[in-house]
Amino acid sequence: MKAVIIGAGSAFGSRLSIDILSREPIHDAAIALCDINAEKLATVRKFVQSAINHHKLPAKVVASTDRRELLRGADYVVIAVSIGGPAYYDTPFDWEMEIPAKYGVVQTVADTVGPGGIFRALRTGPAMLDFVRDINELCPGAMILNYTNPMAILTWVLSEKSAGPVVGLCHGVQGTSQKMAKYINAPYGEIGFWCAGINHMAWFLEFTHNGENAYPRLRKAMEDPKIYDQDPTRFDILKRFGYFCTESSRHALEYMPYFRHDTARVERFRAITRGVKGRRQTWYEDMGVKAEHADSIQLIRSHEYASGIMEAMATNVPMRFNGNVMNRGLISGLPEGCCVEVACLTDNRGVHPCRVGALPAQCAALCRTNVNVQELTAKAILERNKDAAYHAILLDPLSAAVLSFDKAQAMFEELWKAEGDLLRYYES
Q: What are all long-range contacts of 270-278, with beta carbons under 8 Å and residues at least 24 apart?
């Protein structure tokens, strides 16, 4: 088995490699690491080789700044990249946070929706098209596992162009279900759930403890101010719409306009993102690895899905996970062909998404407000269409809550000018 990781200089490169090595059926894998930052790449390669040597594993690791050197014969291509600069500090991220804020569109994360998510997609999409072009040529049967945000938009773009299967992977479902178990003081192994929607706005349609509905206990738990304060946005959404959603209280503030009036909450969570520079270990916590183990060569497995998918396909022992795939009759209340997040089963014949049917009407309606933006941004990327990008801004719930047409256009043009060098693709 050969796995190529594009963007391996990020935290994903080292931790996903350790995940692969931790699974005996695939610990003889060929791991190929790619990044444009040669220094970071060398560090990750050395780390992975140290783990292989320490545990006397049959795996091999190679690295190159040229992805074409690595792609031929790949079975899996993992994509975890940040195009144009660091993911959550410095430019262009600072532009995508601060220019909208000047117009009154205050974002807390700015990587998936809102002006920040749209422009992150616009600058990242052309690179994704380059990646998939090379994959189609050099390893056309390879499965693409995308970890790059904005997840739904970029998985949509990749799926439109890939000759092989594409699945977008996030840790929102794993992380949220673990938190929900803690809120009701239940062992995680006794929890069950059924979750579906779109990335960062999937809904726990069922939440059980030992087979019994645990939602009444969750509603009771949120009455405790200490528990409520850990997740205020999601508890408010649960109270108003009846279901718990997958994205964190920090992120969820951006997906619907109702929280614009709670400036203290917005600033509280915005400050967390703005202070991320240099806090590399926080990414390991997100992936399910304790910070103190971030640089350990022990085979400590994260809760990311990628290595489990690889093992399931190698062994034909099925694995269930929640993945982002194109809506081909999976969720009836969302547009056909959009990107949805649903339960999937994996075996040696690939990934099999599960049909959900209809979401609760209010949950589907909230998802559609974000799907509108995703569709237009994907159109902008696939068709080199600047007008579609502008229309995505106009339809963004966060922007529409505070901007007139004229202010929205002024914000859009200022962002476009700031990122001009990263958006040359749309001028050709």
A: 270/106, 270/107, 270/108, 272/108, 273/88, 273/97, 273/108, 273/109, 273/110, 274/97, 276/88, 276/89, 277/86, 277/88, 277/89, 277/90
